[in-house]
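Issue 218. Parser rejects a valid record. Input:
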Amino acid sequence: MASKKSHIWEFVKDFLIINLGMAIYSLGWAAFLLPYHITTGGMVGMFAILYYVTGFPMSVAVLLANILLLAIAVKPLGWQFVIKSAYAVAALSLFLTVGQNIMTDEAGNLVQLMGEGQDSMACVLGAILNGVGVGTVLLAGGSTGGWDIVATLVNKHRNITLGRVMLYLDLLVIASCWPIFHDWRMVVFGYVTLAIYTYVVDLLINSTRQDIQFVIFTHCHNEISERIIHETSHSVTLLNGEGYYSHQDIKVLITIVHKRERVKILRMIHEVDPAAFVSQSRVEGVYGNGFNPIRT
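Output the parser choked on:
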């Protein structure tokens, strides 16, 4: 019963986090990017260009396009992904509408919060908010829709990373500003926004997915290994060692765990063998059982 309640709470918490992420993401667009006619990559960036040309509401375009994509994605990607993504898209559409209404003055123009001529600052702030918003949604297991869905579908059937697919699409969207507007400013600001946004997303995601490698020199190798195996989801590699000075045999344990488990492992080692010699180092790009699948 407790496990079921915990599962329900995790599901609810994910949706609350998705709401927060979409609110932050929409704030970046409504308060900084749209008023200064700045675009970036992604399907939302494409619809921003459509909005600048025709005035067609971004929120409506985002909603309609993603309904079609999610309908296609149900079978190959599963209901859980689609439900969270559909909720994120609906929240994005709602927050974009609310944000634009709040930022629109009596004349029907979007208010430039930073004042006129502050395009660079608006670009930076909008990109940061976009990155924080999307990163927050991704951490909750959701998706902002658009290229995320397209890239996931491609990745499902081809051994191509999500990042590479999305990068190609983003570059194409931003480059399209030149033949439409004949304005290099929009192209340059678009790429700057994309670079900052991507960096912020990576920073947010990687800060929670860093892994730790422990190298443990101990005479209590059996006890420590058993505890690591049974109290975490990770295994241990056991090596035979010899102290060069003492010429005494010693066992060397190597294990890689998630960053959040670091303190737990250190306490575990201290409880079993306070005299153990321990080295820890941060590792990135860990692939295999319990970590990330290998992609090229």
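Fixed in the parser; the record now loads. The chain has eleven helices and four strands.
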